[in-house]
Write a structure and sequence with these properties.
The protein is of the alpha+beta class. It has one domain: Aminopeptidase (3-Layer(aba) Sandwich), CATH 3.40.630. The chain is built from six helices and seven strands. It has a seven-stranded mixed beta sheet with strand order 1-2-3-4-5-7-6.
Length: 172
């Protein structure tokens, strides 16, 4: 099982490298992002406060997954999407390009769900997947996410998915 740790500035180069793979990211809808490809300093600036500390974790959690044998293998963010902090949204789930297809995405999501439900105590986690990304859809489904209706329409075509705390507990 992968371990998660909060984002560190030293991660930004790797994250930028993973998401600049135009053959993958643009296929899924990256052309709709105005600042693509994303530079490492842009990532770091979005995740850091002026004093260099990681952004306040009251509503936004950038996490990096790592493994003792492989080092850093992926990255994702979690952010609250409602006022009472009971619904968390996963986004930017990205795995090292050279490791894709080896189950790291599933492990990252499982660790993230455990943190969300068991530590943060949320009631529901949502995620969106580009409609033409079958592998991500299958991965999300394999950890318990189910298709649901769009709550807020994204500027690109996504399949909205969610997992509720009760379903997470039942599937453990």
């Amino acid at each position: 099982m992968l371990r998660l740790r909060p984002y560190k500035s030293c991660d930004c180069e790797k994250i930028a490298e993973w998401i600049k793979d135009e053959t993958v990211f643009l296929k899924w809808g990256g052309k709709l992002f105005g600042d693509f490809p994303i530079a490492p300093d842009v990532i770091d600036r979005k995740y850091r406060l002026n004093n260099g500390d990681c952004v306040e974790p009251d509503n936004f959690y950038p996490w990096t997954a790592f493994d003792d044998e492989n080092g850093v293998v992926g990255h994702f963010i979690m952010r609250y999407i409602n006022g009472d902090n009971k619904i968390l949204r996963f986004g930017w789930v990205v795995v090292d390009n050279s490791l894709r297809g080896n189950g790291y995405g599933k492990q990252m999501l499982s660790a993230g769900l455990k943190y969300a439900f068991e530590i943060l105590g949320v009631d529901k986690v949502t995620i969106g997947v580009f409609e033409n990304n079958d592998s991500a859809y299958k991965c999300y489904k394999s950890v318990g996410f189910v298709k649901t209706e769009l709550v807020d329409k994204e500027p690109w075509n996504v399949i909205e998915m969610e997992i509720k705390k009760n379903d997470y507990i039942k599937n453990r």
